[in-house]
């Protein structure tokens, strides 16, 4: 029996569209390409809707949005950033979005009163702590641009010897100790990368080592002249570029600053390599090893002879952050939400981070608003948020997520996050173009792959074909990757998805294009960089808008929510095998056989349920709306069941058993189990493995029950 066409939208125009499509199907037109979670008639209607949606976004309009958002520096708590909040709210109202609301959160903020750095021995040198202006880019002459600083740095005045500690990771300090060098009471100079670790982790590590202050600089080996042409001629950072940032770690709460373990207690300051070079070249101590050498024309040494005076005076206090929120209420399932978001605040102009994402978001909301104006609503409610204070500890999204935690845990289908849409230079990307670099919880990875086949990349290929080509190029593989390997299912922190995944247990997807990019968090990350180097045509901005919108529409309109728990289980099995491989020879006191078995059982039930629902949809069998709604509730509950309200050991705010992040922001799978294994705490590891087994058993039972109910009630 064929399914009757359901009311996908409430308007006459879309009824006519659906009716016409149904008539075409009866005239033996080729069937529409299937879509996960949709029956054939609804898939045909969805494809037609998506075609209309994709025709709306404009590259030139994205360019205009981008110029508006990058016209002035707009860090969190600044007057300009607050003006942009009002601007976004006004634009969303004009676009037809509903319930537009500005939510204010009074939070701990930090900005500099004054900072200075001078070398006092063996020669005198005063660091500029400023970035050079270029006449070709008038924005770099803007007097509102700040000098170097780290948000949440401690204030103070320190004069001490300088020690070069490579990347500032724990193993770097171990090597210094082996060479008889202590950093206690000294000023540590470290690089941002090689290997990468987040600046807050560097501050935390330096503090634990007893350092008096921390200087972090960008070496040209990582993001400067050693990589290629520098700004304004290329994508990499010039000699004066400085990477600003915040120096705390995730998890800050509303307590007195002196009680917050996440806030650093030492002075911290970012430097350009131009300001760091005199410090490094005047050292006369032991030579650092080869892998500590950088791209400056000097010999890098551990220490010796260099003493500097650092003074930092920060204005730290409560300031208002504003989250802008709007929605298009669903026509049939208004209490099921698909959330879209991008942060608004930038360290300076934010050409890539975040304003490329903001421009893509504004075209997305314009297109969805135009559909609504034509009478076309999604079945489920779409919510969009412009976050504030992302650059300061992910504050706006965390406040909003915690405020509405009860609703979000029950109603949120997924959060689709775009921090920056174009974080790379199309001008240096070659014929294959920029890399599409999304990440997603494993249960939603197949949805993303499927949707990419219906979006055109700037190269003219489908986004799916372009994605496979760039993945092959980037990994230097001899053959394109399998679909199962396209989506990164290991998700760290560092953006606004964190509260939704790690604290609330809701599925997330992150979307962006990546490539050569060396001006991160600097003044040079601006409209000029994007218009001349990053995405001159703004076609990548629009490709991102389109894939963002297609995934959102499919999640909002699907009959059956397209979670793939069989694929989810495959990813979990891979995570577990990686843990075993990295700790080979150390797991004799911990048996993971039961955990492997539970993953297999979970995957089997996921496969059976997926096959049962797919067969029903594709065969035209029907089931009641109430039974379908109940099934979707059960599918959402699976994701909720990965939460442990106690949290992972030592970090109770992080409650997801499968996903978390290290202090470096790097991804961390099975966080409680993994950290216990790494500490060789076998009792705790066994407890954490037991929690995973329990959650898998619970979800396996839930999937089995959902399948039984679905098959029993088919008509």
Relevant terms:
three-stranded mixed beta sheet; twelve-stranded mixed beta sheet; disordered N terminus; 39% helix; single chain; 21 helices; 715 residues; alpha/beta; globular
Describe this structure in words.
The chain contains 21 helices and 19 strands. It is globular. It has helices spanning 12-26, 40-54, 59-69, 79-95, 170-178, 199-208, 220-223, 273-281, 355-373, 395-403, 405-411, 445-452, 463-475, 498-503, 527-534, 539-557, 565-582, 593-619, 625-640, 671-678, 682-712; strands spanning 98-121, 125-126, 150-151, 156-164, 187-191, 213-217, 245-246, 267-271, 307-328, 333-343, 380-387, 412-417, 422-423, 435-436, 439-440, 508-510, 513-514, 659-661, 667-669. It is an alpha/beta fold. Residues 1-29 have low confidence and may be disordered. Strands 1, 2, 4, 5, 6, 8, 9, 10, 11, 12, 15 and 16 form a 12-stranded mixed beta sheet that branches. Strands 13-17-14 form a 3-stranded mixed beta sheet. Strands 3-7 form a two-stranded parallel sheet. Helices cover 39% and strands 17% of the residues. Strand 1 (98-121) and strand 2 form a beta hairpin.
Spans where pLDDT lies below 50 across 5 or more residues: 1-29
Tell me the β content.
Answer: 15-25%
Return the structural class.
alpha/beta
Q: What share of residues is helical?
A: 25-40%
Mean pLDDT score:
92
Instruction: Give the oligomer, counting copies of the same chain as homo and different chains as hetero.
Output: single chain
Rg (C-alpha, Å): 26 Å
């Amino acid at each position: 029996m064929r399914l009757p066409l359901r009311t996908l939208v409430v308007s006459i125009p879309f009824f006519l569209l659906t009716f016409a499509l149904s008539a075409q199907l009866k005239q033996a037109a080729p069937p529409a390409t299937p879509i996960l979670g949709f029956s054939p008639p609804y898939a045909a209607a969805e494809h037609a809707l998506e075609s209309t949606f994709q025709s709306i976004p404009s590259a030139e309009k994205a360019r205009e949005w981008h110029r508006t958002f990058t016209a002035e520096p707009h860090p969190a708590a600044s007057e300009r950033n607050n003006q942009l909040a009002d601007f976004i709210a006004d634009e969303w109202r004009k676009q037809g979005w509903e319930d537009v609301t500005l939510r204010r959160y009074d939070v701990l903020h930090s900005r500099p009163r004054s900072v200075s750095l001078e070398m006092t021995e063996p020669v005198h040198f005063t660091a500029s702590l400023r970035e050079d202006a270029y006449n070709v880019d008038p924005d770099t002459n803007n007097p509102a641009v700040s000098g170097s600083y780290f948000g949440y740095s401690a204030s103070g005045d320190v004069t001490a010897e300088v020690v070069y500690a490579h990347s500032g990771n724990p193993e770097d300090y171990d090597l210094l100790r082996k060479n008889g060098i202590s950093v206690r009471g000294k000023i540590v100079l470290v690089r941002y990368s090689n290997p990468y670790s987040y600046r807050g982790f560097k501050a935390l590590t330096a503090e634990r080592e007893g350092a008096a202050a921390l200087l972090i600089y960008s070496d040209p080996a990582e993001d400067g002249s050693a990589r290629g042409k520098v700004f304004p001629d290329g994508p990499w950072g010039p000699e004066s570029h400085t990477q600003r940032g915040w120096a705390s770690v995730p998890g800050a709460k509303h307590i007195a600053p002196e009680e917050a373990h996440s806030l650093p207690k030492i002075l911290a300051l970012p430097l350009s390599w131009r300001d760091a070079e005199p410090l490094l070249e005047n050292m006369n101590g032991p030579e650092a090893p080869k892998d500590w050498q950088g791209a400056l024309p000097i010999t890098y040494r551990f220490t010796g002879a260099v003493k500097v005076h650092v003074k930092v005076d920060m204005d730290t206090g409560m300031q208002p952050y504003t989250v802008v929120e709007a929605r298009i209420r669903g026509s049939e399932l208004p209490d099921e939400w698909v959330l879209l978001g991008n942060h608004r605040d930038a360290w300076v102009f934010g050409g890539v981070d975040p304003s490329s994402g903001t421009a893509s978001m504004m075209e997305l909301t314009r297109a969805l608003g135009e559909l609504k104006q034509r009478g076309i609503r999604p079945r489920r409610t779409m919510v969009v948020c412009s976050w504030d204070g992302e650059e300061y500890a992910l504050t706006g999204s965390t406040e909003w997520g915690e405020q509405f935690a009860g609703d979000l845990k029950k109603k949120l289908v997924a959060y689709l996050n775009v921090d920056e849409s174009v974080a790379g230079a199309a001008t240096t990307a070659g014929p294959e173009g920029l890399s599409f670099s999304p990440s997603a919880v494993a249960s939603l990875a197949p949805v993303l792959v499927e949707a990419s086949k219906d979006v055109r990349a700037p190269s003219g290929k489908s986004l799916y074909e372009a994605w496979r080509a760039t993945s092959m190029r980037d990994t230097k593989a001899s053959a394109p990757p399998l679909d199962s390997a396209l989506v990164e299912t290991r998700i760290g922190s560092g953006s606004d998805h964190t509260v939704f995944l790690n604290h609330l247990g809701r599925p997330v997807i992150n979307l962006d294009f990546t490539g050569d990019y060396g001006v991160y968090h600097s003044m040079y990350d601006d409209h000029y960089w994007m218009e001349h180097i990053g995405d001159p045509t703004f076609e990548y901005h629009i490709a991102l808008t389109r894939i963002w919108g297609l995934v959102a529409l499919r999640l909002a309109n699907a009959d059956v929510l397209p979670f793939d728990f069989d694929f989810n289980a495959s990813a979990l099995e891979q995570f577990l095998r990686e843990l075993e491989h990295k700790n080979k020879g150390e797991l004799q006191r911990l048996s993971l056989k039961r955990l492997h078995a539970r993953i297999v059982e979970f995957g089997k039930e996921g496969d059976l349920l997926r096959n049962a629902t797919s067969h029903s949809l594709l065969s035209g069998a029907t089931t009641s709306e109430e039974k379908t709604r109940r099934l979707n509730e059960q599918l959402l509950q699976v994701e909720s069941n990965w939460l442990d309200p106690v949290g992972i050991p030592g970090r109770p705010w992080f409650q997801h058993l499968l996903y978390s992040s290290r202090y470096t922001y790097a991804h961390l799978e099975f966080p409680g189990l993994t950290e216990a294994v790494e500490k060789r705490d076998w009792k705790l590891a066994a407890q954490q493995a037991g929690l995973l087994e329990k959650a898998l058993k619970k979800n396996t039972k839930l999937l089995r029950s959902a399948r039984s109910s679905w098959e029993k009630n088919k008509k």
